[in-house]
Amino acid sequence: MTKKKTTLALVSLGCAKNAVDLQVMAGNLLKDKNCTLSPDPDRADVVIVNTCAFIASAREEAEAEIRRAVQLKANGNYGRVVVAGCYPKRYPKAAAKFPGVDVWQGVPETWIEPKLPELRFTGRAFAYLKIAEGCAHRCAYCAIPAIRGRYRSRPVRAILREARALLQSGCRELNIVAQDPMLYGVDLKPRLSLTDLLWKIDRLPGDFWVRVLYSYPSEITEEFIDWLNTARHAVRYVDVPLQHTVPEILVKMNRKAAVTPTLVAAEALRACVPGITLRTTVMTGFPGETDLRFRRLRADLRRMQFDHLGAFAYSPEQGTAAARMAGRPAKKTAEAREKLIMADAAALWRVKAKRMIGQTFPALVVAPGVARLASQAPDVDGVTYLLDTGVNPAVGAFITVRLVKVCGFDFEAEIV
């Protein structure tokens, strides 16, 4: 008699790197155990809630999802509740707050390789390829090193094995992720660089894009710029997390090495890489951010004219150096400044997007009727909706589109 399979429901919170962790965890269970994915996400033998704990809003979201899972278990919808990831790693004793949780499991200490072909949440067209774990930086506001540990590069052979499997399964965009992809290989013997890895990926057969997400301004090298300009599969897109632009604030953030690169990054990259798309993220309300310093941040961002920009209000994190610093603006002030930055970004986007109307661009079909331009990174930059012209390209197909309308941060386009 065949044993009934255990059904799994999955909840992924936080960044793409967290989603990759859950993919690997659940995918390995599906391969090694008698498990299958539940057709109903609110009803299963086991639910895995993979959590984030980076900032206050992430913790609140995690706690709400845990409570929801526990309540569904009490209602009979779930048999067991597993909470994994950053929240239980950072707060191991918090399990007592949620008596209905059966397993309280933090981030694994050792690297877990995915079983191939692996489970993918992103669909057929694109995937996140994680190349390292942990962080080598000690930014004053950030708790990630305490959660994720020291920087550990994944072996080249394992990365290439996964990349090949993804491409063979129909994936057409590999998005390189890590806490800091630019530091890849510093801990390997013999020592390698990110560009060494990128060139190896670029030599893989097929028609696909490679996009590197998250590039510290002080670590962008001439070799990386050369790869952007000359590699066959490179997407000319760089996400440079500035966090701030005022030198005094960057020093307090323990990002002193990034002061000069931060001030010149946008102009330098545009000069070196024609047609590049630039994204950044900044923080408002960090200790020491006066009205004058905020105005300088705002003026710098207007000058730099990033194509995509995100902002968030600083929240003091337990155990970080910044949490003990004086001179922190009020929460309402930080949030008001965040809204001003985002309003500036939206106004600039409308101008840039309007200039793109009528132009043609290559695009990747990521879902029926939905594509992304090379200038649109997954999950953060919007999408391009395809107008119904009687042509229905398959998911994973590269097409050429003409942009006809701006819809917020998205586009409508016709297939050329």
Kindly describe this structure.
This protein is α/β, with parallel strands linked by helices and 416 residues long. It has three domains: 101 residues, Methylthiotransferase, N-terminal domain (Rossmann fold, 3-Layer(aba) Sandwich), CATH 3.40.50; 231 residues, tm_1862 like domain (pyruvate-formate lyase- activating enzyme, Alpha-Beta Horseshoe), CATH 3.80.30; 56 residues, Beta Barrel (OB fold (Dihydrolipoamide Acetyltransferase, E2P)), CATH 2.40.50. The chain is built from eleven helices and 18 strands. The strands form five sheets. A five-stranded parallel sheet has the order 2-1-3-4-5, with helices on both faces. It has a five-stranded mixed β-barrel with strand order 14-15-16-18-17. β3, α2 and β4 form a beta-alpha-beta unit. α10 runs parallel beside α11. The N and C termini lie far apart (56 Å). The mean pLDDT is 93.
Per CATH, the class of the largest domain reads Alpha Beta
**Percent range of helical residues:** 25-40%
Taken from the alpha-carbon principal axes, the silhouette is globular
Radius of gyration, taken over Cα atoms and rounded to an integer in Å: 22 Å
Please mark out the parts with pLDDT under 50 across 5 or more consecutive residues, or reply none.
none
Q: What is the string of SSEs from the N terminus onward?
A: EHEEHEHEEEHEHEHEHEHHEHEHEEEEE
Q: So, the CATH homologous superfamily of the largest domain? A: tm_1862 like domain
- Mean pLDDT equals 93
Number of DSSP strand runs: 18
Amino- and carboxy-terminal Cα gap: 56 Å
CATH topology label of the largest domain:
pyruvate-formate lyase- activating enzyme
- SS-based class: alpha/beta
How would you write the strand order of the largest sheet?
Answer: 2-1-3-4-5
Strand content: 15-25%
The appropriate CATH architecture of the largest domain is Alpha-Beta Horseshoe
- Give the count of structural domains: 3
Number of helices: 11
Biggest beta-sheet profile: 5 strands, parallel
